[in-house]
Design goal:
Spore Coat Polysaccharide Biosynthesis Protein SpsA, Chain A, Glycosyl transferase family 25 domain-containing protein, 2 domains, globular, transmembrane, transmembrane helix, Glyco_trans_25, seven-stranded mixed beta sheet, two-stranded antiparallel sheet, membrane
């Protein structure tokens, strides 16, 4: 069984109500945790200097910048403290996470059992660096009854990270803010060939229990609506209930209706398919090619 060395919640100083709600939830679970002080992007005076890549082109809100730097700071702490200690795992929460009280601990224990380095499944698959809890993608292939191979990181509300995984992420993600932290991890670490980077590849997995983690309902401090509309549309395809109609529906929801959505989304998909073939990420190209027929 893999060893859970620590549990952290990322929380801003001004978010006292969120922290109190989280404390009450963890007390019911009888799980100790440490509060990690989050970076408050709204109080930073040098935000523009820290922006790089897509953050400059697409724009990053103060909340996005603070969220990104908070995760990188915590991952850096884990990497520096446990760099030479193998088989150490850490559970990271954002303070608006809400867990399924009836199954969370049992599911977490099953995942930690699967993460044992002696598990024979890891002779056929890369040993995990990160495990995302609570959200999964539509075409995530199963590796164990409790773990699916993560095609991308779609959220950082709650995840497990190993000391080696933290080291990989810090080396690539910091110190510049590239965009949403999960999008940057996907682009630079999970799909490095697609984006022509020399990054170490992150072995990312997901819990097979879809609704293990949910948002508490508190207002977002990160501004989730900052994704470009077409990217939101394509990501809809990857959700467990996603269909091609959801692409057009989401385009219409964002104010791009009728033939505009058809003319805009399909060429975008074609470009992504060709991009995947060029980078030899054939699973990515096949996934998008099959989307209209599912």
């Amino acid at each position: 069984m893999a060893h859970l060395s620590g549990t952290f919640v990322i929380n801003m100083d001004r978010s006292t109500t969120r922290l109190q709600r989280f404390r009450e939830m963890m007390a019911k679970l009888q799980m100790p945790f440490e509060r990690f002080r989050a970076v408050d992007g709204s109080t930073m005076t040098d935000r523009n200097r820290l922006c790089g890549g897509a953050c400059r082109i697409l724009g990053c809100s103060p909340g996005m910048i603070g969220c990104y730097l908070s995760h990188v700071s915590l991952l850096s702490f884990i990497a520096q403290t446990y760099a030479k200690v193998p088989n150490r795992w850490f559970l990271v929460f954002e303070d608006d996470a809400s867990v399924r009280m009836d199954i969370f601990q049992e599911t977490l224990n099953r995942i930690l059992l699967d993460l044992s380095p002696t598990n024979p499944v890891w002779s056929d698959h890369p040993y995990p660096d990160t495990v995302q809890l609570g959200r999964r993608m539509r075409w995530s292939p199963p590796v164990t009854p409790n773990l699916l191979r993560g095609l991308c990181m779609n959220g950082t509300t709650c995840y497990l990270v190993s000391s080696l995984g933290a080291e990989k992420m810090v080396a690539v993600l910091g110190p510049k803010v590239y965009y949403h932290v999960d999008a940057a991890a996907t682009a630079l670490l999970i799909w490095p060939r697609l984006f022509k980077t020399a990054s170490p590849r992150l072995a990312h997995y997901m819990s097979s229990v879809e609704d293990l983690i949910q948002h508490s309902g508190a207002d977002s401090t990160v501004s989730p609506g900052t994704f470009p509309k077409l990217i939101v549309s394509v990501l809809q395809l990857l959700q467990p209930d996603g269909t091609m109609s959801s692409v057009f529906g989401s385009c219409a929801m964002y104010g791009v209706g009728g033939w505009v959505s058809l003319n805009a989304t399909l060429p975008f998909l074609v470009v992504l398919i060709l991009w995947g073939i060029r980078a030899r990420e054939y699973w990515f190209a096949a996934l998008l090619w099959s989307a209209p027929f599912l």
